[in-house]
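Researcher: Here's a chain I'd like modeled. Treat it as a single chain, no partners, no ligands.
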Amino acid sequence: MLKNILAAALMLLSGAGGVKAVTLTADSCVKMALASDEKMREAANNIEKARLQKQIAYTAYLPNFSGMASGLYYPDSKVEEMAMTIQMRGVYLAGINLTQPIYAGGKIVAANKMASIGREAADLQMELTSDQLKAQAETSYWTYVAVLSKIRMMESYKALVDTAYARTLSAVNAGMAVKNDLLRVEARRSQLEYQLGQVMNGADLCRMALCRTVGLDDSTPISPADTEVPTAIPADLGEYDLTARPEVKLLGADIRVKEEQVKMTRADFLPTVGLTAGWSAYGNIRISSMAQAPDGSYVPVKQTINNNGFNVMLSASIPLFHWGEGIKKVKAAKIDVTNARLALEENTRLMNLEVRQAIANVRTGESQLVSAEKAMEVAQASLESVEQTYNVGMSTLTDLLDAQSQWQTSYANLIEARTQLRINVIEYLRVTARI
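Model: Modeled as a single isolated chain. Structure tokens:
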């Protein structure tokens, strides 16, 4: 039953059973992850939003146009005064105004600078999200490659144990070994099948995690183009520039925004100057009165008034006294700038520690890989030696099983050392903004 389950798992991992496996590389995983991730799409939307906000801020430099029109209609709108009747029925009023800010205390300039910084921050946020996603995609890919390597290793180990089982069975049948030896090998085979099942399950979980990262359906079979995890480390390990990190740039952008906010706050308490120009028209005002004719008699006179004209007004608003409100608000805004600088200093120290830790992890991983490679060489040589002596009856079954177990342990440690070193390198590249 267990063999059937393992066979089905192998078919799924290899893309058999009528389902074609998708072949991926580390680079293709990164590209697919960047194209499908929701956070990347959200970051792109934020960039578009920041672009629109920058355009909105620029419109404050431009004049504003407004128009108005009104009409009055009263059934009884006669006003009589001093032998004059004014009829307001059907009076209209219309006009167009232009308002141009000339000086707003620097608020418009500051708002435009803040909008530009906001656009820059949106780009940096996308860069940060991209770096994190690249690291996640590469880590998922190489983890899956590693677990498939473990499966191949376990299959090789199983072949060794199966060979030992066949030889022991022949020896028992020939009366040259006891049944207890066969049971010991059988127990090792059962243990190996259990371990192989665990590795298979882990491989399927890694495959599903990789599918989610690159935007594929969880059931998609994946065939990595690589069979081994690379172990190369950066040649310039230890050389880095924290100012290249998007996190540092974002903190710097926050400081600049806070500085512009100080200017915005100060502008609320500075004079403002504006120019207003307009054209207006009114009419249909009818006047009825009596006028004296040359012969001394009075005759009725009717007149309809319609008129239009231009007007220009320059206005200035000067704040005089607000009980120190402006000074206090500016001081409060400056405190925000100071806090933003402190945040940059603190986070720079933390990021420096993060990079140093990443460097130490790479060096430790490199040292562990060297040790694992040496242990594997010894285990391989020991297994070959024990197999030779066992075949001529100079080693016991216990010696052979122990050598095989040591070979399996050393091989597993080698795979883990290679994988951990690669993960450490990926993290180092991420924290130094070079991924």
